[in-house]
Amino acid sequence: MRRDGTVGRLLSRAFAVLVALIVGSGLAELAAVLVQHRAVEQLTDEVQPLQLANADLRAVLTDAQRGLRGYLLTGDEQMLDGYFTARTGLTAAGDELRRRTDGRDAAAAADQIARADGWFANAEQQRLEPPRSDEAIRYAELGKTLFQAFVTSNDQFRVTLTRRAADLRDRVERLQTIAVVAVVALTVAAAGAAVVTALRTSRRITRPLGAVVETLDLVRDGKLDARADVTSGPAEIRAVAAAVNATAEQSEHIRRHEEQVSARLQALDTVKTDFMSTVSHELRTPLTSISGYLELMRDSEPGELTDAQHRMLEVISRNTRRLRDLIEDILTLSKIESGSYSSDRIPLDLAKTISKALVAIGPVAAKGSVGLHLDVRGPLPVRGDGAQLDRVLDNVLTNAIKFTPAEGTITVHAERHGDKAVLVVADTGMGIPADEQQALFVRFFRATNAIKQAVPGTGLGLAIVRSIIDNHSGTITVDSTENVGTTVTITLPADEP
């Protein structure tokens, strides 16, 4: 089969013709636009201003005639105000008309200005005569003739300019038609060249490339014995065909590996699902029974149990609570991973929620000889899930107490900053190593210093807290220094009171 050169060479030859036609079309349109621009410029910069100047001169003479006639008919000298204003404007109107005319229009403009000057000279004589006198009537008859002569000259010049403007507009329209025809013709030629180029490209490039794509589809569908033709088409397509064949030879091995990995992942997912089900049903049920019987034993008559037995029951109760909390954390984490964990947000006062949590955690802090410093500035209206926010506060405060040694202090500060409700919990505990802080919100993560000191925990609390805060459109940050302390900052969108 025929071997062509490179794709670049084929495309450069094919598109050279298209570029030439496009450039030709652009040059033709540019030439037409330039000629149109010259005609439009002549119309807007020469003819139309000349028409306006011609009309202004006529308006000046008309205003002067109206004022003078009113004076002569009524004898009211105030009627001459318009006449004097028009006589003052005659010079400006005449100068503007002369400035706008060129050689071919100079005679017509000079004729109008001369006739206007003649009318004004007669009008001045008429104005000086007593109204309705014989001399005034004679000057009025002469002025009528002079004014009519001016109007005739003005109309002739106006007609000339109107025809010239119409000729320019016709020229612009003809040029537009010619430009459209030229562009259409060149566009048709470009389209024809594009069709020819497409056919040649299809024969020399598209068909071999399509065969390679078809081979790729076969390999993707599992027909690993499919091979592309490495002898046809440009050099680049032949190279792609060779690469496709090499890929097909490795596909079977890759597919086997993917099947093994997929099977292992499915097995792991099944194990995880089974484990969560076991935690939910097999652990919670007996744990509920244990808690129930513990309550019954502790609520018995005081004389029935010794002090040692009461202490043993307290240990059992404490570890039962730890186990129940662990189960709840695992179940919550499972809901988060499955995307079914949501928050039912209603209006509530975060300050009251914090106060309730502090009341519950106070005895634990006192038992560990940890001081609590409180600065809660309410109310702090937010929209949130009360149970989930209780869980956040319980986790953060419990961690602060758990990791703070005796005689340490915990400071709880809460207030509103603009449109945010801000809670800050700072302790003087063991802190977190700097290189481990980026993993604080990863599930099952525990700091090395906590592990070494055998501080109990599962590493699930902060991961759950982060998810709850995210569901509330808030943020949580942790700033910690080892052997100095840790500060947890939580912000939530504030609600209107």
Give a description of the structure:
InterPro entries: CHASE3, HAMP_dom, HATPase_C_sf, HATPase_dom, His_kinase_dom, HisK_dim/P_dom, HisK_dim/P_sf, Sensor_HK_Regulatory. It catalyses: ATP + protein L-histidine = ADP + protein N-phospho-L-histidine. Keywords: Kinase, Membrane, Phosphoprotein, Transferase, Transmembrane, Transmembrane helix, Two-component regulatory system. This is histidine kinase. The chain crosses the membrane at residues 178-199. By secondary structure, the protein is an alpha+beta fold. Helix content is 70%, strand content 9%. The protein has helices at 7-74, 80-100, 106-128, 134-220, 235-298, 307-338, 350-367, 386-402, 448-452, 461-471; strands at 346-349, 371-376, 381-384, 409-417, 420-427, 475-481, 485-493. It has a five-stranded mixed beta sheet, covered by helices on one side. It has a two-stranded antiparallel sheet with strand order 1-3. The protein is elongated and about 150 Å long. The two termini are 82 Å apart. It has three domains: 7-196, Four Helix Bundle (Hemerythrin (Met), subunit A), CATH 1.20.120.1730; 253-341, Orthogonal Bundle (Helix Hairpins); 345-493, Heat Shock Protein 90 (2-Layer Sandwich). Strand 6 (475-481) and strand 7 form a beta hairpin. The model has no long low-confidence stretch (mean pLDDT 79).
